[in-house]
Amino acid sequence: MHKIEAAAELFNGVGVARPEVEDAVRQLLVAFGEDACREGLERTPERVARMYDELLAGYRVDPFELINEALFDVDYEEMVIIKDIEFYSLCEHHLLPFIGNAHVAYLPKGKVIGLSKIPRVVDLFARRLQVQERMTRQIADFIEAAIHPYGVAVVVEGVHLCSKIRGVKKANARMVTSAMCGSFKENEITRSEFMDHIARDTRSVLI
After folding, report:
1. Distance CA 127, CA 94 (A)
2. 181 annotated active-site
3. pTM of the model as a whole
4. Segment-wise mean pLDDT, segments of 10 residues, the chain, 207 residues
5. Which one of the listed residues 9, 91, 138, 157 is annotated catalytic?
6. pLDDT at position 10, please?
7. Catalytic residue list contains 162
8. Which domains does the chain have, with CATH numbers?
9. Which single residue of 4, 32, 45, 115 could bond 22 by disulfide (Cβ 3.0 to 4.6 Å)?
10. Does residue 132 carry a catalytic annotation?
11. Choosing from 5, 42, 69, 92, which is the catalytic residue?
């Protein structure tokens, strides 16, 4: 598949039922003590295979191809912030979901990224088997490599089902991770401005 087509597929909500995944799911059902051929489970391996193909689509897309036509030369050096970007990912330790919001900022140095591309970049890295710490770093590192800004900041807030429904069973626990590069790491005022922006609820103003 062409990389641009693969990038489009990442966001169209359609998964492919891969036979090897179907077989693995069928074996799991049998291992659980189920009859994989009964009516309610007969098509479950196919459905689960499609689901994983959709949820893990980030492996098939080159992030540079994803943004390749959306880099613009702009005479603007003030902070750009995209906040409250919803994401859904799978924890690599238990294959259970973790979900939340990402907040991304950068200080452009002659180039900006098209607005819709930042949420797509977040989705791309989220749609892999992940740990939140690594995902946060990957988003920041990619933006830094793509446009070489004066600085990048990423904060991710996530709720992890692996700690919510099993193990310690802490329903209200949230995980917050951050990655700071350049001016956001070196300049406390810049970092504080970003943190103030993401702490402020502007939704009522925009509606």
Report:
1. 15
2. no
3. 0.89
4. 53 79 97 97 97 96 92 94 97 96 97 96 98 98 97 97 86 92 97 95 55
5. 91
6. 60
7. yes
8. 3-58 (1.10.286.10), 71-206 (3.30.1130.10)
9. 45
10. yes
11. 92
Tokens coding 174: 């949230």
Instruction: Answer yes or no: are the C-beta atoms of 87 and 99 closer than 8 Å.
Output: yes
- What is residue 137's predicted lDDT score, i.e. its pLDDT? 98
Spatial contact of 17 and 50, defined as CB atoms under 8 Å apart = yes
What pLDDT is recorded for position 17? 82
Q: Which of 34, 162, 193, 197 is catalytic?
A: 162
* C-alpha to C-alpha distance for 88 and 81, rounded to whole angstroms: 20
| Residue 160 appears among annotated catalytic residues | yes
**Catalytic site includes residue 133:** no
